[in-house]
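[SOLVED] Need 3D model of a two-part complex

Original post:
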Amino acid sequence: MNALTLWFHKTGSPPTFYRIAGALAPWCFGLGLLLGLAALYGGLLLAPRDYQQGDAYRIIFIHVPCAWMSLFAYFFMAANAFIALVWRIKLSEILAMASAPIGAAFTFITLVTGSLWGKPMWGTWWTWDARLTSELVLLFIYLGILGLYNAIEDRRQAARAAAFLALVGVVNLPIVHFSVNWWNTLHQGQTVRLMGPSKMDGAMLWPLLLMALATHLWFFGSLLARTRVGLLELDGGKEWVRSIALAEGARGNG
Amino acid sequence: MKPGSLPAACAALMRRDLTLVWRRRGDALNPILFALIVVALFPLGVGPEPEQLRRMSAGVIFVAILLAGLLALDTLFRSDYEDGSLEQLVLSRHPLSLLLGCRIAVHWLTTALPLIIVAPLLGELLHLADAVRWVMVCALLLSTPLLSLLGAVCVALTVGMHRSGMLLALLVLPLYVPVLIFGAGACNAAQMGLPYAAPLLWLGAALVMALVVAPLACAAALRISLS
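Solution:
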């Protein structure tokens, strides 16, 4: 076995990953919180007012990063679901299922902040625009995956079934992403671009990108914390969980 | 056909499924009755003005047929799972996806096709415009197989569960949304005198793709939930 495969198997084994995740998660949370606060300061106080929307536009500093995360979390979940189904890696099953509730939460925040902004700007809480509808469908797919995962008794079989559903639901991702180009409805088009110049002033752009970074960090922190719990639950009868539980108990008593 | 060959197996499976439906032909009427009642509820709910009903008729009929199909999905594997013949199907040496494709085809023939036949009648109940009637039948002919194929994948995932009805709806309905949008979209375009070919072509393209992919996905899902 070469070094890379060995490293891969070692990192993927539950006790090792439990330890690594435990070390990384506080850093992700801490850095995410710090960067998020800095981005909020930049977005809410430093960035200039919009000439048309006034201060109401500032909700994008929450809305847009969360919307990106709702897609990123799904992509992450689907990639892990694929790995879990093809190579039967236990850790990937848990990672995929741990990202589902976080993605659902980001999707929910996106929809709520969007409708908060929509009320003063569009004059309505909700409209059946292509982007909004496909994002709502994304939320339903997340909830379906969670429902299926919780409905099956056997945890590993539940994870595989839910992972399969996650792969089926991938068809919705391009629809969400391209909906503003394919259907020319109310939601505005793409402003920030990965390739080429963005149609946004630098003073507004940097808090947005910083917030995106912060939400990614928070996602991974939350993911690692959830994965640790998932690993403990799944390996409940194993020796390494027993030793951790004994150590925790000794610390609690002492 | 040589006994034991693949075409013989498919034919035997289809003959068995059709016989089973025929023995309980009363049950086959249930989706029609359900759609009829749902459609009849709308004039009571929103008021009997013909103009208003005409505007929403195609969409209402689509939703009613979609829900009837959703309720009928449960029967796709239920009895076979309970008497163990589904496991025999999975263990057979023939490709499972093809056998499931036959099963889905029979299911479509016995649950969705009767609904399509009564759809013009449902249209009359809601004062559907004459110009829309045949567009609606075309859209239904393209979209109901798609619904059956998508639904079969989700049913296969929930096959071993008790009381899977609500969960199945939660899994299936998000996937049905695009089909509904294009199907009802074609009808609405025809109602307004706009060209309606594009949504029908989209449905056709999706159907061709689902015909290829969905039986494979259904087989994979079934193997997961029976493992």
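Edit: The first helix of chain B runs from residue 6 to 23.
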